Amino acid sequence: MENHLHQTHSASANGGPVSDALSGDSSPAGANLVKPPIPRYLSRLSKDHLAILGFYPLTAILGSLVQVISPPGPSYFSSKRNLLNLVFVKHGGWVWVTALTLLYLLGGPAVGGISAASATRKRTVALRFVAVTVWWFLFSQWCFGLPLMDKVFVLTGGGCAPVPGTMSASAAATGTLSAVATSAACRSQGGAWVGGIDPSGHMFLLSLASFFIWFDILLPNISSSSNTSSTTTTASSSSSIEANEKRPYSLVTKFAFFLVVIYWWMVLMTNVYSFHTTFERFAGITWSYLGIVLIYFVAPTFPALHGTLYE
């Protein structure tokens, strides 16, 4: 991924066509002029990254338009109890992303056969996965008290209200339902999270997981496969080692595609069937964008973090 992300910066810095055109001088003296470097946060943006960053909001817009123009009737996916939602989002959640990342990190020969570049890449992917996981945890699980999603809800005037016929006996007896602080605790006691802005946890999880999988698993593997297929290897021993290293990664790539297709479909269904308000759904995506921008585009501008996360 590092080579893929830095290709624009490298072309400019090494006196390629971009820098030559900017200089306006093909003479040796012109070639020796020092060109101002492209900012790292811009050099890391490729067309692929821009396409992926725009794909999920466009999907959400498409689903919202379908819901407004031609509202669909009840279906299997209009129920929160559909299998994909229960297994891959509500209860599976971050487990599938973790399983995919572990499969990627543990792939390849068990002992030896891993180049220094491969080992370095796996280390940086592991660190970026930890960073993305911390962002997921802070938003949806705990952030020095309430998770960020619940902090937003409470600060905008939300709270836990009873739902007739579903409130637990203990909550009914003590009348403490209004004091329940988190959305999970509210639902567990038969209450409803009402009154404030509730950023969609589904949209946050689905888009954050998809961005990580695309940026750190799929794009690098697709790029690596293309480069490998265009290179002819004459030594049979080298071909054998390469084949052994590629086999587990092809499994990872298939697993990654499987997950992003499911996540994309769930993004679409979440908007078609209007779970949360339109603003809350886009608020969920916005929070995932904030984490991705911080980790992938802002952090590299700090030398210490760049050397740790992207070396």
Please tell me about this protein's structure.
By secondary structure, this protein is an all-alpha fold. The chain is 67% helix and 3% strand. The protein has 16 helices and two strands. It has a two-stranded antiparallel sheet with strand order 1-2. It is globular and about 55 Å long. The protein starts with a helix and ends with a helix. GO terms for molecular function: coenzyme A diphosphatase activity. Pfam families: FIT. InterPro entries: FIT. The chain crosses the membrane at residues 50-73, 93-117, 129-149, 201-219, 255-275, 287-305.
Topology:
Elements: H1 2-5, H2 7-13, H3 17-23, H4 28-31, H5 40-43, H6 47-69, H7 83-90, H8 95-106, H9 116-140, H10 148-155, E1 159-162, H11 169-174, H12 183-188, E2 191-194, H13 201-229, H14 236-272, H15 278-298, H16 303-309
Antiparallel strand pairs: 1-2
Helix pairs in contact: 6-13, 6-14, 6-15, 7-14, 8-9, 8-14, 9-13, 9-15, 13-14, 13-15
Task: Give a brief outline of the structure.
InterPro entries: FIT (IPR019388). This protein has 311 residues and is mainly α.
List descriptors.
mainly alpha, two-stranded antiparallel sheet
Q: Shape from CA axes?
A: globular
Helix count? 16
- The portion of residues assigned to helices is 55-70%
Strand content: under 5%
Regions with little confidence, pLDDT below 50 for 5+ residues: 1-31, 33-41, 109-113, 169-176, 228-248
